[in-house]
Every structure is written in C-alpha cells, then in structure tokens.
Specification:
6-stranded parallel β-sheet; 11-stranded mixed β-sheet; 36% helix; alpha/beta; elongated; 439 residues
C-alpha cells in the first residue's frame, strides 16, 4: 500500500552513472514504489550544459543547469557528477536543507568526508556512499552494518579494476606494462587521467574510506601510503609466476597491535605486492575487484564483483536510494558513523611486512656472507635464498643472481637493508624489490 507522499529525487550529473540511475529509476518506478511504500519521483537532473551530448535514455525535459533550485525542492539528492567542486558545495546545500544525500564520489569523501558527515549529523540527515568503493560490490554496508558488532582487523583488497586488468594481462599473456596499458586504454578501462589508476590514487581514496569505516577512525587521504604499478616489470611478473606468486595492486587497511610503548594504530596503504597463487585474491582476474576482510568473530570474508561501470555503479546508488527512501517513510534521524576510536594513522615505516629482493652480485668467496651481514645488521631475518649463477661473459667478473625472501620486519628496516645493499661493493645491482602479502 502506497500511502506516503511521493518522494522528490534530484539527480546531479548525467554521465555514464547518472544516465543509468535515471533509466533504472524510471523503468522500475512501480516496483521501487512498492518496495519503499512511496513513489520515487525524479524531479530533475542537474548538468553543466543541457545541450551536451550524453548517453541514451536521459529524459531531456528533466535537464536543468539550476542545481541549487533543484536541490532545494528535493527530499533526496543523488550526486554522481564527481570531482571536488561544485559537488562539495551542492552536497552541503542538500544536507543543510535536511535532505539525505547519496554519492558515488570517492575523491570527495576521502578529501572532505569529515566536513560532509558532520553536516549530515548536525541536521539528522544521512549520507550514503555504497557506490564510492568498488561500485556494485556491497562493501560499505557490510562494514557499516553487518560487521558493526565485530572487530575488523584487516582489509586487503583489489579495488582498482583497470590496474588489475593490466597486471592480469602482464601475468597471463606476458605483455609489457606499456602494451597492457594500451589495451586497457583501448577498452576504456582507464580514467581520463590514467595516473589516477596506475599511480594508485584511485585505490588510495577507496582504502581511506574503507579504513575510516572499519576502524572508526578518521583516515586522511594524505596519510595513505601509495605506490602505483608503473615500476612493475615484465621480468618481475615472470619471476613471480615461476615462484608461485602473482603481482596485484593491493589496498590494505590494517589495525596495528600496540607496540612496546603501548601505542595502537591503523595503517592504510596501496602498493603492488606478490600474492601467493593459492590466495583468494590471486584468482581475481581481468577488471574485477575483490575485498578480503578479516574480522575477529566473523573470520575471513571475501566480497567480489564489478568494481566499475555505469550500470554496476548505478545498482549501488539505487540500493542506497531505497534505504534513504524507506528511512524517510519510517521517519527518524539518519545514522551517523562514529570515529570514536580515533586511532593514529601510522606511517609506512612502522608497518610489518616482507620483502623479496633480487640482487645481481659478484660470484666470489665471501659475497654471500657480506650480504647476509647487511640483513642482520638491520635486524631483518632472511627466510629464503635462491641463487642462480649467470653465464660467464668473457673479460667480466662472474656474477650470480640472488633472490632473498625475508621474514616480517618493519618497512623501515627492510628499506634500510635495500639502501645498504645498493651501497655495498658486493652488489652489482638490485634488480627487483617487492613486498609480499597474503602468506
Ligand atoms: N578507475 C576505477 C577502476 C573505476 O579502474 O577501478 C572507478 O573507481
């Protein structure tokens, strides 16, 4: 029974996501009304230029350039325009006028999240953002609601589809980074500014959001450690495959146990790492995303699916819209997320991880001992060493390749080992340094 008045929905943005949101909202109008108990009436779509070319299915009569008037007349505002401004201003206007807001804008949330959540809390409105991380994959709601009574200790995810596609093609087809990137560009997987993907900025924004929710702590974007995939080589890929690993761009959010001084903290970081082929994340192929969550009572959980795409992102937006609309019908204030834990976000130096280091060294007596000493001087324990002697080159000193796998140590100690290896006269060159996760 539909007894409640129609709810007025304003849509900001009519790009690939906005067009799909409009289409699904209009096509499924009756079914959505039955689920919510109120009609969801799309009252307008704000765009910069009503005459611009846009995807099929956007009703021209709903387009307007007057976002402010549209926002003032709405019960629920959906922001899918992206970017910081004017998205931030529009969302604040909507929240300040008491409307609930649904956004897919990871960059805005990772940059101005605190300001937006505070504004929502002040007026009892709610900000929904399932679509901001990994599109269609439900990960925000599980962290915000399903696991709200548990203690999440670690999240390790592949949250950028285009880089996963690139690394997967390097792994399975033996492509170079450049060729795999060219393919991803051709398929339209990369952002207009590809560095957002390949330098890890997109994944960093997503992990900042996940870490804040998981650890009830504000995690500023500039505290997220970030390395992209641009230094991953074909040789590293081949070596990974030969040794039972695959290289993935990982987004990791982790609760750090108290150190000797009793300090607890959290870490949020993005980097390419070796993952054992038997780990569930190693099986994530192509442009898919997956998030692996470890919680104290729930154990290990994995969320998998499409992390990008207009219609997939629209699915998450529509899910939020139904929640927001039901809340309107039921009444009561929005539910704020708490950042009460207020844990410090620790720098990469403090994180415990493992390195695999490949070195071209002189093949002569004492070299192995010299190299081993450098590891022990920095308190780093070696787990595995593999040596392959290189073919002799007439007139040159003999050399060998050494692949050293470490036990866990702080990133500071591991990077000090790499620096001292680089300075050592026993070492001709360091050919690969990469972290190992998921063991
Ligand atoms: N550029 C992102 C990706 C999609 O490749 O996963 C949107 O987050």
């Amino acid at each position: 029974m539909i007894e409640y008045r129609p709810l007025r929905i304003a849509l900001l943005g009519a790009g690939s996501v906005g067009a799909q949101v409009a289409r699904l909202l209009l096509e499924n109008r009756e079914e959505l009304a039955a689920r919510v108990g109120a009609e969801l009436e799309l009252i307008g779509i704000a765009v910069r230029d009503v005459n611009a070319k846009r995807p099929e299915g956007v009703p021209a009569e709903l387009l307007t350039t007057d976002a402010e008037t549209l926002i003032l007349g709405a019960d629920i505002v959906i922001e899918v325009m992206g970017g910081l401004e004017p998205a931030r201003t529009y969302i604040l206007q909507a929240l300040n006028s008491g409307s609930d807001v649904i956004t897919a804008n990871k960059y805005l949330l990772a940059t101005h999240g605190t300001e937006l959540f505070d504004a929502a809390e002040q007026v009892g409105a709610q900000l929904y953002f399932e679509a901001a991380v990994a599109a269609a994959i439900p990960i925000i709601r599980p962290l915000r609601e399903s696991l709200a009574g548990d203690k999440v200790n670690r999240i390790m995810g592949i949250v950028n589809g285009s880089t996963n596609y690139i690394l997967d093609r390097m792994d399975t087809a033996g492509l170079s980074l450049e060729d795999a990137m060219a393919e991803a560009t051709e398929l339209g997987y990369l952002e207009a500014d590809p560095s957002l993907d390949v330098e890890g900025y997109d994944a960093a924004q997503k992990v900042a959001i996940l870490a804040s929710l998981a650890f009830h702590t504000e995690v500023p974007l500039d505290h997220v450690y970030r390395e992209g995939i641009t230094k991953v080589t074909k040789e590293q890929m081949t070596s990974a495959r030969e040794n039972g690993y695959v290289i993935k761009l990982l987004a990791i959010a982790e609760r750090i146990a108290a150190d000797e001084a009793g300090e607890q903290g959290v870490s949020a970081r993005v980097y390419p790492a070796l993952v054992p082929r038997e780990h569930p994340l190693a099986a994530v192929r192509g442009a898919f995303n997956a998030v692996f969550v470890e919680a104290e009572a729930a154990g290990s959980l994995m969320f998998y699916g499409s992390g990008a795409g207009g219609v997939q992102t629209a699915s998450a937006v529509l899910g939020d819209l139904v929640s927001a609309a039901k809340r309107h019908v039921a009444g009561g204030p929005g539910l704020a997320d708490s950042v009460h834990a207020n844990l410090p976000v620790l720098p990469i130096d403090r994180i415990y991880t493992r390195y695999q280091i490949t070195i071209k060294a002189k093949d002569q007596p004492g070299v192995l001992a010299q190299i081993a000493t450098l590891f022990s001087q920095h308190g780093v324990s070696v787990e595995t060493v593999e040596q392959a002697v290189n073919p002799r080159v007439p007139g040159e000193a003999p050399t060998a390749n050494l692949m050293v796998g470490t036990h866990e140590a702080t990133d500071a100690s591991l990077s000090a080992v790499v620096n001292s290896l680089a300075a050592s006269d026993a070492v001709e060159s360091i050919t690969s340094v990469i972290r190992v996760e998921g063991l």
